[in-house]
Each structure stands twice: as structure tokens, then as C-alpha cells.
Design a protein that fits this description.
heterodimer; A: about 230 residues; alpha/beta; Arc Repressor Mutant, subunit A; five-stranded parallel β-sheet; four-stranded antiparallel β-sheet; about 20% strand; globular; B: about 350 residues; alpha+beta; Heat Shock Protein 90; five-stranded mixed β-sheet; two-stranded antiparallel sheet; 9 helices; about 60% helix
């Protein structure tokens, strides 16, 4: 076990899915540890301490959520959830319980690898410092200066309101991680998410997107997942 | 519209009809001085009540009420009870019998209607199932055949051949994914007991999500977008509405031959948001127009090639979803060529107190 590959714990009970995901990850240079049930996953987790967990929520012995809580009790290991479509509530519940992101089944190799890469990158960053170097955060041509509370795209300053800046800053601090409506609302306004406050968030987001010059259908810095939340792409 | 409980409605019907017949009888008795038809009036009232209410209770109740009214008010001695006269007893019995018979008949009729609707639904479901299973066979053949080919002969194939075979697997499984998404949407609504859950959704985010999804499948197809600058919030099941728009766009790509422009326009009119998906292709053939949203499938065996086969269930899924949202969906051909699909949804006010 003395290699410097990232270790990924794959918790999935469907053999076929497990096989192709494992093959994909292994050919991409990761070390894969496989588990078919919640119980084995817990044992393997504590003996291997993987860098990332890929978790299917529907497991034969217990709900994947049980394992999620088990991991989150004393570690920040990134967790990527595999979930079926049309289960927004499950997704939100998983994210609110500490999952970092999710991929909807069926997914392509590219989608899965992109999420895995971005989650591993973040956990490497956050392990060392909170906000990148010298209180700044940047992706592509977006630059956030936390101390001056300013946002630049292509070197030009984007004028944001206080609330808008707080939202962008919060998403950037959690870049690559899907943040649910309630998580953002709690961080920006405090308190819990009601229908009204979600609407307030959505309207603020609409303004942010406009100021960022985002047009519908093109990938911008912030991705929206209907009914779930937002993610700052990393 | 508020839902009135059944018994309140039935009681109201009973009371109104009884009062009317009582009033009419008073009129006959004292204005026109006709006595012999009063029983008939009440018999008719009992008949009507049994017809219009559910079950036996109201009919029987009203026949007793009628009997008492006739006995008390309209037969000699007036405004006093007298059960010794055989005529009174006879009319009472006749009223009760009529009420029971009518109630039995109407109950049977209602049951029959319900069964008819149920069997219609069953027929639709069987049609859908037949269409779907027929449709599923083709991509499954590709996937199964291609994967066994790769397993057994993969080594000896040229890279190009292998790529083609794998591409076939990918395309056909994508098609299967879409089919399953449609089926899931239908079951999400059709199960009847499960009402759709509407959450306020920002139009722009919906369109964004739709386009990202659509582009993943049809990268080459440009979609022109025209949506209001203001924030429009529409309560909806976003996953389902997303599916509606993707289905219609996809339908255009697959069926609007010669299409060069495809556009999605959304505008608000009063409290309604109107979605228009327009293409400049060949239009919709007249013979398909009637059953565009209802017919699950054209019973045409020749349409099993890749191009046309997902004509299957897409549009009827759209109609089901929009109906479940209380909206309206229509399609028409344009004079200038091409077709437009239009559906409406109710919007919600955007009211905000800043900060």
C-alpha cells in the first residue's frame, strides 16, 4: 500500500456499475477500494482512510445516509453521492448532511471524473489554507478579493451589493461543492430557509448572473441545479 | 375552486327540491285550487332527488318528508296528520319505492361510467406499454449485440470499427435514458394519489438548465432564446417542466425536416407565462395533428429506424405534465412554414423587501 495514488472508496452494490466505475478510476490513476454494503464500507473506511468516498445511497443493508453520517462524525473526507434522477429531496438531504456533491445516474465517464478531480483538488486546498493565497480566490478570469470585498472578471470590477458579494464569496469558499439553498441562506442571512428566503436568494442570484454576463445555456462560473442549490465551478 | 363536501351538496340539493315542490304544491292548492296532482309533484321531487344525489339515503329521507308534507298539509284534514286514510299510505309507499328504484338505477349508472373511464385508462396504459416495449427492443438489440461483438471480436477489429460499435452502444443507451425519464415522469403523475409538488422556480434558471441538458445531446443545434429581462418566478415541478421543453425541442430536431432555426421564447401575459418553441422545418402533417398529444404511438411498423422512433411518447408526456400543472398546451403550423408549440403556466408575484 505504499504508493502515492489518491485512494477512493467506492461504495456501490450493483456489480456492473462498480466494475466500470472502478475500471474508469483505476485507468485514471486512482487506487480504488470497493465496498458493497454499509457495514463493509465502514470497516474499509477506518482501515484505509481514503481521500474520497463515492457513495451510492441505495445500499442493501442500510441507507447510504447512515454511512455518510458515520464518516462526517469525525472527518471532512470529500463524499460524492451517486443518486437516481427525480429525487431532489434525497439529494438535498445528502448535501445538507455533509455530502460534497452528487452525480445523477446515469452519468458519463467525463462527468464522474470531473467531479472526482474537482473534489480532490478542493480537499487539498482546504487542508492547507482557507482562502487561497493572500485572501484572494481566482478561477479562470474571475478574481475575488476578500479583504477589499471586490470581484473582478477579466480585470474589470463587477459592482455587487453586500448581499450579492456575500453569496459569491460563500460559494467561492466552497468552490466545487454543491451548496443547497438552505446552506447558502444560513451562511448569508442566518436563520433557516423558508420559501420567501429561497426566493430572495434566487433573485439575488439572477442579479449576480446578469452582472457576471452569464447567458442561459452557457457554462458560467456558477452552476444552478434546479430545486437543489448552486455550485461555484472549480 | 373550493371543494364542497359531498354530503353538504347532497343535502342542499335535497332541501332545495323539497322546498320548491312544497311551494309549488301550496300554489296548486290555494291559487289554482287543484288537489289531485299534489302527490305527483312530490313523487317527481323524490325522483329528482334520488337522481341527483349519491346513494339511497337522501331519496328515502325525502320520500318520508314528502309523505309527511302531503299528509299534513295537502290532504284532508289539512294541516293535521291523518294516517287512517288508505290513499295517504298508498302514496307514501309509492314514493318510497320510486326513490329506492331510482337510487339503485343511478348508482348503477355512475358505477358503469366509472368503470368505463377506468377501462379507458387501462387501454391507454396497455397501448403505452406495447409501444414502449416495442421501442425498447431496438436499442437493446444494439447494446447487447454490440457488447458481445466487442467481447468476442474486439481484438481483431480495426480501431474505427470498434469505435463505431461503441458509439452505437452510447447512442442507444442515451435513447433508453430518455425513454426511461419520460416513463418516470408519467408515473410521477399518473399514480393519481401523488400530486405534483410545485416549487417556485426562476424562469432563467429553468431555461439555463434546459439548454445545458439539450446541448449535451444535440451540440450542433443552436437554440435562440428570448426571455424577459425581469425575474419571472413560476411555481412548478421543475424536473417535469424541464422535460416538457427538452421533449419539444427534441421533437423539432427529430421531425422538423429542413429546420435551420429553433427558438424558445417565453413572455408573460397577465398572470400567465407563455412558452413558445418554434421551428422553421416542415411543419406537422395534418393527419398527426389530432392525435399529437394523445396518441402514444403511431401504429406503424416501419418507423423503427433511429430517426423517427422516439416519436413514441414524448409529446403525450408533455401534455400530461402541463395538464397536471393546470396549464394548456397546443401545437400549430405556421403560415411561413414550420411549427410552433405553445404552453402556459401560472406565474407568481415577485415581492421582496431588500435585505
Amino acid at each position: 500500500m505504499t504508493n502515492n495514488k489518491f485512494k477512493i472508496l467506492l461504495v456501490e452494490d450493483e456489480t456492473n456499475i462498480q466494475n466500470f466505475v472502478a475500471a474508469l478510476l483505476e485507468t485514471s490513476g486512482y487506487q480504488v477500494i470497493r465496498a458493497e454494503s454499509c457495514m463493509t464500507a465502514q470497516t474499509l473506511y477506518s482501515s484505509y482512510l481514503p481521500d474520497l468516498v463515492i457513495l451510492d445511497l441505495g445500499l442493501p443493508d442500510k441507507d447510504g445516509m447512515v454511512f455518510l453520517e458515520y464518516v462526517r462524525k469525525n472527518s471532512l473526507t470529500p463524499i460524492l453521492v451517486l443518486s437516481a434522477r427525480s429525487m431532489e429531496r434525497d439529494k438535498v438531504a445528502a448535501l445538507d448532511n455533509g455530502a460534497n456533491d452528487y452525480v445523477t445516474k446515469p452519468f458519463s465517464a467525463a462527468e464522474l471524473l470531473a467531479r472526482v478531480r474537482s473534489l480532490l483538488r478542493i480537499s487539498r486546498f482546504t487542508a492547507h489554507e482557507d482562502r487561497g493565497l493572500d485572501g484572494r480566490f481566482s478561477i479562470d478570469e474571475l478574481l475575488i478579493d476578500y479583504d477589499a470585498r471586490q470581484v473582478f472578471i477579466k480585470g474589470e470590477e463587477i459592482k455587487l451589493t453586500q448581499t450579492e458579494f456575500n453569496i459569491v464569496a460563500f460559494l467561492a469558499e466552497n468552490a466545487g461543492k454543491m451548496m443547497t439553498y438552505s446552506a447558502i441562506i444560513k451562511a448569508v442571512w442566518g436563520g433557516c430557509a423558508q420559501e420567501g428566503s429561497i426566493k430572495k436568494l434566487q433573485v439575488n442570484m439572477a442579479n449576480i448572473r446578469k452582472k457576471f454576463g452569464a447567458t442561459p445555456g452557457t457554462v458560467n462560473y456558477i452552476t444552478n441545479e434546479l430545486g437543489v442549490g448552486y455550485r461555484m465551478n472549480s | 375552486m373550493k371543494k364542497i363536501p359531498d354530503y353538504v351538496k347532497n343535502m342542499a340539493i335535497t332541501a332545495v327540491i323539497l322546498c320548491l315542490s312544497f311551494g309549488f304544491s301550496l300554489l296548486l292548492q290555494y291559487v289554482f285550487e287543484v288537489h289531485e296532482h299534489i302527490t305527483t309533484v312530490f313523487v317527481f321531487a323524490v325522483f329528482l332527488i334520488s337522481l341527483l344525489t349519491r346513494g339511497y339515503a337522501y331519496g328515502i329521507l325525502s320520500s318520508f318528508a314528502g309523505m309527511i308534507a302531503v299528509n299534513y298539509a295537502f290532504t284532508f284534514p289539512y294541516f293535521a296528520f291523518n294516517f287512517t286514510v288508505p290513499v295517504n299510505v298508498t302514496s307514501a309507499i309509492i314514493m318510497i319505492v320510486i326513490s329506492v328504484l331510482t337510487s339503485a338505477l343511478t348508482t348503477k349508472l355512475k358505477l358503469h361510467e366509472m368503470m368505463k373511464a377506468e377501462s379507458e385508462k387501462e387501454r391507454m396504459r396497455a397501448n403505452l406499454l406495447r409501444a414502449v416495449s416495442h421501442d425498447l427492443r431496438t436499442p437493446l438489440t444494439t447494446i447487447y449485440g454490440a457488447s458481445t461483438t466487442l467481447l468476442e471480436h474486439g481484438e481483431t477489429m480495426t480501431a474505427e470499427h470498434r469505435n463505431n460499435v461503441i458509439l452505437g452502444i452510447k447512442e442507444d443507451s442515451e435513447w433508453l435514458v430518455r425513454m426511461v425519464e419520460n416513463l418516470l415522469s408519467i408515473t410521477r403523475i399518473d399514480s393519481g394519489t401523488v400530486k405534483i409538488i410545485k416549487t417556485p422556480t426562476v424562469l432563467e434558471e429553468l431555461v439555463d438548465s434546459v439548454l445545458l441538458k439539450f446541448k449535451k445531446r444535440y451540440d450542433a443545434q443552436e437554440v435562440m432564446i428570448d426571455i424577459p429581462d425581469d425575474v419571472v418566478i413560476i411555481p412548478m415541478d421543475a424536473i417535469l417542466i424541464e422535460q416538457v421543453i427538452v421533449n419539444i425541442l427534441e421533437n423539432a430536431v427529430q421531425h422538423a425536416a429542413g429546420m435551420t432555426e429553433l427558438s424558445l421564447r417565453v413572455f408573460t401575459l397577465g398572470k400567465q407565462a407563455i412558452f413558445e418553441i418554434q421551428d422553421n422545418g416542415c411543419g406537422i402533417p395534418q393527419e398527426r395533428m389530432n392525435a399529437l398529444f394523445t396518441g402514444y404511438y403511431k401504429q406503424n411498423e416501419t418507423v423503427s429506424d433511429g430517426q423517427t422512433r422516439s416519436a413514441g411518447i414524448g409529446l403525450s408526456v408533455c401534455a400530461t405534465i402541463i395538464k397536471a400543472h393546470g396549464g394548456d398546451i397546443k401545437a400549430e403550423n405556421l403560415k411561413a412554414g414550420g411549427a410552433v408549440f405553445r404552453f402556459t403556466l401560472d406565474t407568481e408575484d415577485v415581492e421582496l423587501d431588500e435585505q
